[in-house]
Amino acid sequence: SKEYFWRYNAKDVEWHTQQIINNSSNSSLVTIRQNNERGGTELFIYTPVQNSLFTQVTATLAQLGLSIVDAKIMQSKEGMTLDTYVILDQDGEQINDPYQTSRIEERLKEMLAGDYQPPEIIRGTQQRQLKLFKVPVQIYFSQEESSGLTVVEVISTDQPGLLSQIAYALGEQKVILHNARITTLGERAEDLFFISSANNQPINEEEIKEAIFQAIGEEGA
Predict the structure, then answer these.
(1) Is residue 129 pLDDT above 50, yes or no?
(2) Quick check: 137 and 154 in contact, CB under 8 A?
(3) Which helix (H) or strand (E) covers residue 156, if one does?
């Protein structure tokens, strides 16, 4: 789609294409490379669309003790996801250890194959530990005219498991996640989620807003 080529540069497209071509097994593709331009380790996942995929991936990465500092979630017209995550280790560094990168790839492949179920992040536990650099949680809703999707913008303090907590909250509200744009600026997380209802019913913004506040350990505004 046009959005894919807008969001990825030529080097990214070349990398994605080569990895997909080389994936002769026809199984889900999970691959990692270092991306110095983005300041982290880049993870690429190419697999059939699943409603809970974002939730499962973010929970798996959180369980491995990894931080997500950037993410692009996309779906092709052929029913495949082209998802990229920029991740860091527990010390905020790139993951250069080949053993660790292989472990990340294998655990994600196990999850995609249904052989591993990541534990649900315990909600609200992380927020109480983060008092410094606290960013007030802000949640905004808008409509994307071109797609008709509801856009949920969440601004908050970055914390371990944040995306997994938000993903579970959205999942419990029975909404479908079509796209996500994740940005971390120091201690500040600015995340966009493009959603629709599962049965074409109007989105209940207040219920979603309260669910997100509860998931990340904040009082509703």
Answers:
(1) no
(2) yes
(3) strand 149-157
The answer to whether residues 217 and 157 touch, using CB atoms and an 8 Å cutoff, is no
pLDDT digits (tens, 9 = 90+) for 39-48: 799 999 999 9
Residue 123 — φ and ψ, nearest 5°?
-80, 145
Tokens of 115: 């052989």
Q: In what order do the strands lie in the sheet with 40-48?
A: 29-35, 40-48, 80-88, 67-73, 175-185, 188-197, 149-157, 138-144
Cα 62 to Cα 41: distance, rounded to the nearest angstrom:
15
Q: How far apart are CA 109 and CA 77, in angstroms?
A: 23
State both tokens at 144: 């994307």
Query: CA-CA distance, 120 to 35, in Å (whole number)?
Result: 29
Measured CA to CA, the distance from residue 179 to residue 149 in angstroms comes to: 10
- DSSP character for 174? T
Alpha helices for the chain (secondary structure H): 2-7, 10-22, 53-63, 98-112, 162-172, 205-215
Tens-digit pLDDT profile for residues 135-148: 788 999 998 888 88
DSSP 16-70: HHHHHHH-TT-S-EEEEEEETTTTEEEEEEEEE--TTHHHHHHHHHHHTT-EEEE
The upper half-sphere exposure of residue 99, i.e. CA atoms within 13 Å in the direction of its Cβ, equals 0
Contact 78, 87 (CB under 8 A): no
The answer to whether residues 41 and 35 touch, using CB atoms and an 8 Å cutoff, is yes
